Amino acid sequence: MLLPKLRREVCQLHAELPRNNLVAWTSGNISARDPASSLVVIKPSGVLFDDLTPENMVVVDLQGRVVQGDHAPSSDTASHCAIYRQMPKIHGVTHTHSRYATAFAVVGQPIPCVTTAMADEFGGEIPCASFALIGGEAIGELVVETLRGQRSPAALLQNHGVFTIGKSASDAVKAAVMTEDNAAIVWAARQLGEVIPIAPAAIDSLYDRYQNVYGQR
Length: 217
Hints:
Elements: H1 4-14, H2 16-19, E1 29-33, E2 40-42, E3 58-60, E4 66-68, H3 77-86, E5 92-96, H4 99-106, H5 116-122, E6 128-129, H6 138-147, E7 154-157, E8 161-166, H7 169-192, H8 200-212
Parallel strand pairs: 6-7
Antiparallel strand pairs: 1-2, 1-5, 2-3, 3-4, 5-8, 7-8
Helix pairs in contact: 3-6, 4-7, 5-7, 5-8
């Protein structure tokens, strides 16, 4: 079996999506790219999260062609691969239809950076890209176009949901969790009144501290 360790990691990370209320039924997917071979491990299409195993993860090449697996890969595979081909430092991609973040996507609005936690993680707003149909590379192209040169590891896709990227699959999942958490905070805050923006210089300072000082080094 190819890439057994990466298969286990991707399988285990999928449990975080329903655990964090980021998906419904079989929606959503995670992939990881192996740095050595550039092969990609991704969720099989339409399989319940409780039925996922390392063995039924699908291995594809960077063109989305199945290299190993008994199941069809996720319908978002072409978009995942388009991201990997154009962003060589990225080794994890997560896609969700999480409720609050997708609410921003269906009205075509970015999520504004109005919490220190969001400044820490995203270094600014979470942008909203335009609309693209599922199944080909168009969504992946929009993600690359929207995030290239940006600090945010997350992009909303109009009328669709959320794509996040990371140096690992775990990083991409974390970004998806934090996207939804901040979307929910902003939505709730707007029921109380106008949100208070954080000054750009303060966002820069918070982002630098979190990325370069916070945690164990």
